[in-house]
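Here's what a typical entry looks like (RNA polymerase sigma factor):
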Amino acid sequence: MTDAGPLGADDTTFLAAVRSGDPARFARMTERHRRELQVHCYRMLANYEDAQDLTQETFLRAWNKRETFQGHAALRTWLYRIATNACLDFLEKRNDRTPVPSGLTEFGSEVLYLQPYPDHMLPEESVVARETIELAFIVAVQHLPPRQRAVFILRDVLGWPATKAAGALELSVASVTSALQRARVTMRGQLPGRRLDWRSPAAHELSPGERAVVQSYIDAHERNDLHKLTSLLRDDLHFVMLPEAGTSSVTARDAVDGWVSGGLFQPGHDDWRGVTTMVNHTPAAALYLRTPGDPNHRLSAIAVLNIVDGKIAELTGFDATGKPWLGLPETL
């Protein structure tokens, strides 16, 4: 696999680091790519913790295969190739990393292993398009077979030419082109109509309207105001609580009925505090619950809110306990 044009200064320096056999020097050169490689692995796997592990696996493989770097491809290309194939090897060995039936005709499957991606861990040096990191896109990608998934991400997300993607995956250009065409059809079938453009600009801050809705969502919890909470939801709300199976609902009424039957705003689940945040370039509310006898409100869940025309159209809840990588305080 080769890249057009001469090697850059970084690639020449890295080639010297490879030839020196100095692990510290090698690590310094590769470490700068950690965050973008982790985002790449996350798109492939939809799970933050898996992406962390596979990024580390990428660096281990890179060190073990350092002699294969001859300067014919850029360092970044070489590392992406290793990361992609590490993810494919992982998926080949796991039978629990595919969507499962949800029992709902409108949303035929659930991705139970899905985890949010904290914005503070996104690459700082480059723009990550919102549509290619938000949850709806990540879920849709999971419906692609692994190799199609890799082709789609390399070609349509990273913008690699077909020859470069083919070299990374050891496929023919014709195979890559065919896989991309099939992947695009699947993606358009999975994504809601308003999300068919996956190259829109990133949003690094909440808009005033989004911030107001998130704050109202938090206020409703803090005031135990079920009526206010319901008023924030679109009638055709899609809700799911992960990693629990069978929690999907496709109307606001069904979602609220489920929350009430689960004890929301009842004794033991009625002392809430919240913090506005962002994950996956998407508005989110971190919710803290104080249980009887505990002096502190403890991080309980994070609700990721897709807001359309001032109302919550999709709400994906995640268990937030034991996840320090979210970058949220454990107590308030």
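The first helix runs from residue 9 to 20.

More examples are in the samples folder.
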